[in-house]
Amino acid sequence: MLRDAMCADDATPGGVYFGTRSGEVYASRDEGDSWSQVAAHLPDVLCVRAAVV
Q1: Contacts of 17 (CB under 8 A, 6+ apart)
Q2: Contacts 24+ apart (CB under 8 A), 17-22
Q3: What count of Cα atoms within 13 Å lies in the side-chain half-sphere of residue 33?
Q4: Whole-angstrom Cα distance, residue 30 to residue 45?
Q5: Contact criterion met (CB below 8 Å) for 25 and 39
Q6: Would you say 8 and 16 are in contact if contact means Cβ atoms under 8 Å apart?
Q7: CA distance linking residue 38 with residue 30, whole number of Å
Q8: Do 14 and 50 meet the contact criterion of CB atoms below 8 Å apart?
Q9: What is the pLDDT of residues 2-41, one digit of tens each?
C-alpha cells in the first residue's frame, strides 16, 4: 500500500488520517493506535486535510 497523503488534527487524543494511491482513506481517533477505513474506491488520494464540521 503506497501512502501519499497524511494529516493530523488538533483534537485530544489526536486524530490521524491518511490516503493511499489505491483510493482508500483511513482514520485513527487514538493517535494511531487503531485504524479504520473511512472511504474506498476513490481515485489516487494525494492530499488529505482534517477539518472541523
Answers
A1: 6, 7, 8, 9, 25, 26, 27, 28, 38, 48, 50
A2: 17/48, 17/50, 18/48, 19/45, 19/46, 19/47, 19/48, 20/45, 21/45, 21/46
A3: 5
A4: 22
A5: yes
A6: yes
A7: 15
A8: no
A9: 667 899 999 899 999 999 999 999 999 999 899 999 999 9
